[in-house]
Write a structure and sequence with these properties.
377 residues, alpha+beta, five-stranded antiparallel sheet, 8 helices, 10 strands, 55% helix, elongated
Length: 377
């Protein structure tokens, strides 16, 4: 009976237990094959030892429940291990291998996709570098073009200024020559005929000078300062100071300065070909108000006044404590009138009912003369 139980326990082990565990012979196929065979033999030995440990564990458990040697000899043989569990295990193992193969295939597909994405990324990076180079090249070309345009414009302005200065010097030299000739003729001629001829020549010279309505004050490559001289009007108007600034290659900005001229300070922008028309418009606007502005300019030397052309208000400071405000209608002095708006003395408004010049429709000059000599305030 004991022999049968020992045989039953040995049958639970794998058939490989009955074989001798010899080490793998060294082959001459190379170091890689030798190492592979060695590792496989070690794995086989470890598997055999695990199975032996399992059999020994079962034997120890069996002996632990025995109380005597007679019970070991009289007990029936233990049943063979159930082989039904190995079938599902093998099925699960096969299924696991299939899934491992499937995962390996998915990993290979993913690696290919990642390699393709890496290639696309490298192409995109190369394209981005190419675009950056093209952008830098375009910016460089645009900057060079702009610099050439600015240089060309400066050269043109310098050339135009030089030509204008040369023409002005020629005119001045010719004018000096004409004056010298006129003086010589005046000194040498004593007859009435030559005197009449001299008068006609001087009149012609005055007409020529009257037609020159522009006077250049200063100039640089991008800005001109000049005066408009309204000599064709009957009023004695002061020169109008303005500046012309080149904003871009073919555009300008015309700035009108009020000064004592009395016009509204404004700026006009446009192309270079519109510059002459803009200057003509400013001159016509100045001349159209010539009578009023000439009167205001003349009053500046007599009274302490401040003219606001935008609101058409004139402030007269009679004394340190007395301030008068007058308003000029549109079209003054031809169709409009000058009106007294307020008089403040020590900050208080005065009654205007008693403040009226003796003349009908008083002019601005009449008002200022009346207010400056009025004894009521």
């Amino acid at each position: 009976m004991a022999t049968e139980r020992g045989v039953a326990l040995l049958e639970r082990t794998d058939s490989v237990l009955q074989k001798t565990c010899n080490s793998t012979e060294v082959q001459d196929a190379g170091e890689g094959k030798v190492m592979t065979a060695y590792l496989m033999d070690c794995r086989r030995k470890q598997k055999i030892m695990c199975q032996q440990y399992g059999v020994m564990d079962d034997m120890l458990k069996l002996l632990a429940f025995l109380e005597s040697a007679e019970q070991f000899l009289n007990e029936p043989c233990p049943p063979k291990p159930d082989t039904e569990a190995s079938t599902p295990w093998k099925a699960l193992k096969a299924e696991c291998l299939e899934q491992v193969q499937e995962v390996d295939g998915l990993i290979g597909t993913l690696v290919e996709a990642m390699e393709e994405l890496l290639k696309k990324r490298q192409r995109l990076e190369a394209l981005l570098v190419s675009l950056e180079k093209k952008k830098e090249e375009q910016e460089r070309v645009a900057l060079q073009s702009k610099q050439r345009a600015e240089k060309q414009m400066h050269l043109q302005l310098d050339d135009s200024l030089q030509k204008a200065q040369d023409a002005l010097r020629v005119c001045d030299r010719r004018l000096c020559e004409l004056k010298i000739q006129v003086n010589k003729q005046i000194a040498n001629v004593a007859s009435n005929t030559m005197t009449a001829f001299r008068d006609r020549l001087q009149a012609t010279l005055k007409v020529t000078q009257a037609n020159m309505q522009y006077r250049l004050l200063s100039a640089n490559p991008s800005e001109l300062h000049l005066e408009l001289l309204p000599r064709t009007t009957q009023q004695s108007l002061q020169p109008l100071h303005l500046s012309v600034t080149m904003t871009t290659e073919d555009h300008f900005r015309l700035q009108v300065f009020q000064g004592t001229a009395g016009l509204i300070e404004e700026s006009v922008e446009g192309t270079v070909r519109e510059l002459s028309a803009a200057l003509l418009d400013v001159m016509e606007c100045y001349i159209s108000q010539g009578k009023m502005l000439a009167e205001i300019q003349a009053l500046h030397s007599r009274f302490a006044i401040d003219w606001c052309p935008a609101m058409r208000l004139l402030t007269f400071l009679k004394s340190a404590t007395t301030v008068c405000q007058l308003e000029l209608d549109e079209g003054y002095p031809l169709s409009g009138h000058a009106k007294l708006l307020s008089v403040r003395k020590d900050g208080n408004l005065l009654d205007l009912s008693a403040l009226q010049p003796r003349v009908m429709n008083p002019t601005l000059t009449d008002w200022l003369e009346f207010l400056s000599s009025c004894p009521h305030f």
